[in-house]
Amino acid sequence: MNDEKISLELSVDDVNIILKALGTMPFNQVYELIGSIHQQANKQLFDNDSIQNSKDLQIRND
Length: 62
What we know:
By secondary structure, this protein is mainly α. The protein has a domain at 12-49. Helices cover 48% and strands 0% of the residues. The chain has 2 helices and no strands. It has helices spanning 12-22, 27-45.
């Protein structure tokens, strides 16, 4: 796998759509990617223990 990094700017709603789509795939293929998305998003949204955005990233069943 290529270790080259890119940065994306997405809304919380867009990230939740991506997570929902990943949730339909086999767990063993996507669990690390889902974890990475959660880790990076939480660092941005909840940096320094101050909440910058009240929305939680989670797979929604809308």
